[in-house]
Specification:
With 73 residues, the protein is mainly α. It contains 6 helices and no strands. The chain is globular, with a radius of gyration of 12 Å.
Length: 73
């Protein structure tokens, strides 16, 4: 669902869900940091917390977002 929201550029809706349900940040940590990458101008401190161990997973998620975006836009 979060990937679909980001593919549709509904970043603030996705962010609001993470804020409303704090436990989602830990369950979906790589997706959360992808979202923070899209919103980094407003949340630079949060974006910088991303660890190097998530880098490959984040790249894979970005590819998936691009694929979904191409399919549904």
């Amino acid at each position: 669902y979060f990937i679909f929201l980001m593919a549709k550029k509904q970043y603030h809706l996705a962010y609001n869900l993470f804020e409303e349900f704090e436990e989602l940040k830990m369950q979906f940590k790589p997706i959360y940091y992808v979202l923070m990458g899209f919103l980094k101008d407003g949340y630079i401190k949060e974006y910088l917390k991303q660890g190097d161990e998530l880098e490959e997973t984040i790249k894979e998620i970005l590819i998936k977002i691009e694929q979904v975006s191409n399919k549904y836009n």
